[in-house]
Description:
A: mainly alpha, MetI-like fold, 2 domains, 14 helices, 77% helix, 0% strand, B: 14 helices, 12 strands, globular
Amino acid sequence: MIRFLIRRVALGVLVMWLITVAVFGLFFVAPNNVARTLAGRQATPATIHLIEHRLGLDLPLWKQYTNFVGNALHGDLGFDYYHGVPVTQIIGQALPITLSLAIGAAVIWLLLGVFSGVLSAVRPRTFSDRSTTALALFFYSMPSFLLALLFLYFLYFRLTKAGFAIFPAGGYSGLTAGVGEWARHLILPWVALALLLAATYTRLTRGSMLDVLGEDYIRTARSKGLRERRVVLRHGLRSALTPVVTQFGIDLGQLVGGVVVTETVFSLPGLGKTAIDAINTQDLPVIIGIVIFASAAVVVANILVDIMYAVLDPRVRLH
Amino acid sequence: MALLEVDDLHVSFDTPDGLVQAVRGLTFSVERGKTLAIVGESGSGKSVSTQTITKLTRGARVSGRAIFEGEDLLTASPDHLRRVRGAKIGMIFQDPLSSLHPYYRVGWQIVEMIRAHDHSTSRRTARKRAAELLGLVGIPRPAERLDDYPHQFSGGMRQRVMIAMAMALNPVLLIADEPTTALDVTVQAQVLGVMRDLQEDFGTAIILITHDLGVVAEMSDDVVVMYAGTAMEQASRRDIFYRHHHPYTEGLLRSLPAHGGGKGRLIPIAGSPPSLINLPSGCPFAPRCPYAWDKCFRETPPLDEVFDEPGHRSACWLPHDWEGRQACEPRTETIDREETA
């Protein structure tokens, strides 16, 4: 197990390295000239050259790359082009917002998905099973921006116009301003995001649960005279959760790197929205920083999933 | 009165191909402290019938009666049934690896069983009892092994764990569904020994489902021979081996290698069991039977007493007296149903 983990971590490092190369290369191949943009319309070639020199853009590509990786390893992702703010600080400000969104939504979709999945599996092919499936597929196939916009239209715009100003139009309120305000600002994005993802979990839990309920050890559990509830939850769900945990780790890892659409629609200045803004302004260090952070989140999540396997299944621990 | 009396049990399943009649009019009884062996090929309805008694078959159409300690289990409330399962009827299954939960320690699984029926037992007491049970079924260092997972045991030891769990609450009946089929031959004998010792100590009745006549010879008091969902012959162990009436029983015995034998070839039963969806009329064994004649294909023989021996019954049209039955000669070839029909 330890050896397996070491191999997994080494592989993760390799992936991260490849990503830095890819991201770095990509943005230098792409046609853009930051120095010219920063220098303004009437800049002389000398000014542009000076700016390029200050930003280190006149160094050979390999030198720029090694400088970048060297700094990154020391926790320095450079400064943004326009305001000179450290990229790590930009990420540090956006991350709590993305985390609030992702984790809150995760709790909702996990509860919703697993609960409806179990209910479907316990009574397969009944009306309730089929309607749950239909509902899940409805949200699953809905574009995320559309669901978010519908939420805004009905639950913010129409409701506020009708005199019930319950939900804000968007924006973020930090935890320092109170948990209530924080949650009130996040509830719509949470639900909008959770409904999209819950569908996957309903289907996954249902399928996995149906497989498990056919296992011999479930028959044993019943033959022991356990209550059906205990058979389903303690014996069935315990095993059926393994694929759900895998999916959950991967999804959460992805979301921590930024929830582009939901953040944009609800004007939440998280990593996703920051990345979009940076792309619009060609703010290279910020883009690279966020991409690398998001990749790291996915890589770490995958390693955590592997560790979770061992925690969940005693059979994995020995190998 | 017998401990368990199963009367005219029918079990069928709706499948996309049609109604599968897995058990058709099975009647048998189990006496307290005795062992009843149910023998038959795969798909003869052995497992289905015993699992139906405790209602572990799901989605089945069931009719008949299964009177256990004076109450019909087939019509019992789910709550009554839950209290019978485990506490009064213990069960062990063919594959102990897949029958134990892979994620829980064996001690936990036994404790769960004990406390499911008697919540006043403390965890400590239940754990102590679990260790005792593991010792009882012959697992070395039982107290330490409580904290092991099923995959850390060998096949034979796992089946011992299953037996320990099934016997935890001292049930009056143990249903053992092919308990040794998945085990090595040497381990089989040990596991059977454990079951027999427990039976002697606690007076448990056993229903032993098997296709292995060696196991039947070793363990049983009475035998039911099943074929195509119904009983072909019922008798004491002695009669099944030495005074059988039914050609199917005869066929099973002739396809069994004799211990230390070497005299002559084994004679397999030709053909294969009928489909349980479209059962032909007449005796289900007739198409494979070396004694069959026209009547066998037309009329289903009832399960009647034979040889004037109480409790010895056979569903066959062959003469019901010993001399008459002995005079019947099997044909060397079986006839095709198409030719006679």
